[in-house]
Amino acid sequence: xxxxxxxxxxxxxxxxxxxxxxxxxxxxxxxxxxxxxxxxxxxxxxxxxxxxxxxxxxxxxxxxxxxxxxxxxxxxxxxxxxxxxxxxxxxxxxxxxxxxxxxxxxxxxxxxxxxxxxxxxxxxxxxxxxxxxxxxxxxxxxxxxxxxxxxxxxxxxxxxxxxxxxxxxxxxxxxxxxxxxxxxxxxxxxxxxxxxxxxxxxxxxxxxxxxxxxxxxxxxxxxxxxxxxxxxxxxxxxxxxxxxxxxxxxxxxxxxxxxxxxxxxxxxxxxxxxxxxxxxxxxxxxxxxxxxxxxxxxxxxxx
Amino acid sequence: xxxxxxxxxxxxxxxxxxxxxxxxxxxxxxxxxxxxxxxxxxxxxxxxxxxxxxxxxxxxxxxxxxxxxxxxxxxxxxxxxxxxxxxxxxxxxxxxxxxxxxxxxxxxxxxxxxxxxxxxxxxxxxxxxxxxxxxxxxxxxxxxxxxxxxxxxxxxxxxxxxxxxxxxxxxxxxxxxxxxxxxxxxxxxxxxxxxxxxxxxxxxxxxxxxxxxxxxxxxxxxxxxxxxxxxxxxxxxxxxxxxxxxxxxxxxxxxxxxxxxxxxxxxxxxxxxxxxxxxxxxxx
Lengths: 303, 284
Fold this sequence. Notes:
The complex is a heterodimer of chains A (303) and B (284). By secondary structure, chain A is mainly α. Chain A has 14 helices and no strands. The relative contact order of chain A is 0.14. Residues 1-22 of chain A have low confidence and may be disordered. Chain B has 284 residues and is mainly α. Chains A and B meet through helix 1, helix 2, helix 5, helix 6 and helix 7 of A and helix 1, helix 3, helix 4, helix 5 and helix 6 of B. Chain A: Residues 97-288 form the ABC transmembrane type-1 domain.
């Protein structure tokens, strides 16, 4: 497919204006289409706006019936509650955010360190049954997490990895490695192998050629891939809720989900925590928007 | 060899964290092992498998899952393609529109689930409030058997329509312009152009997106867990959710493992179809 994601997301006027005399009613149709798009955009974005609005509303306005769209009193108390415990000191949620950052960060680094060399090897060498190996790697990623978590749970209980950050880091690394390999293989394929051949003629070994010539060219690709791995681990919920239980280990998704357990739910706090949780993801996703198609299809679909 | 040195660490990790656990689950699926009772596991042959395959409960969950997967993926495909088509016809602001439409997809299912739960609340939810101000009746979105499954489909559609849109848009922008120009010289009708140029060229990529979504929807767990917790009754219990209940609430680990293995088989078949097709597409 001759598709570049750049084109799909580019801002420039890539298509010529359709001549106004093309057909009768062309303008009316255009207005209709714009109206339809606007309505759809509002519908898609309303929940996000409502979440942001709720996070800065006073509690009585959060539960107001009918709902208050405008003219509510603004407060930042909910955001304060996300980070500061009622009696002062750090809140459980802020610890969870920190845990999430550690788990997502370390597992991303590990997946990158394991995945990039493998991707390079798959791209450059005639590996036995290469296609089968690559398909096997990708299919591990499609396993239903609820199913995988049952034996993982027993395995972790046996070796004492239950309720530990290391356990989560390991499973997230295993779950991001297939993605890293597939995504990076695409990037390595784009770097001509001739660069390495030329370097080897100059007397470098294959490894040196990879290290000095190919790797620097892969840095943007590695960055984009790592950002996706970071987002996946940051958002992950199923393994987190079944493999961790204590507040000191628990990551943010189960911690936020835990806010609705009791008889009453502080929706303002849920909203504020969700905003704090989602904001970095949106920023990161914006940074890698050019690679979004490859990223969300686990590197399977690209240009 | 350098290739082996570079590849084997990643493969070993996958063997340890994906293949070994699955083999263990395969072994447990032939026993009556329970994670809480402890004690040695007794071999029960295919007992667990026949129990699951003949269970009316499982049949019901399979039907729920089927309705959910087909309903959600169909809605997403129609809407996603529609939005992509509308965006592709615009000359200005395409980048901004695309970025805005993509936001739901990047959110964690936890955030999405929680937020829709709040919005769909029967008493103070904003959706009912809006229906009220339009003079319409209130709907118990998450607490009635029939509406709960519909709500689940709606929320999943809200989150994943952007996925289909993104891929369809890539297909649409790749259609060579000269084809349309040639068609307009021939005074071909718009519907004819859509049917003979646009659709055949976008279809392969769209099918990839649909298959990908179908696999993901089949595995879905987190949204159900947060939004409805399977209820009311068992009306929104998908297969994934049922496996969880058998494994972690009933602690019938052997049965749950057999259940899981059967689900894995379904996923493997779906994934094989997907990968075969993907491969054909890449070579073609």
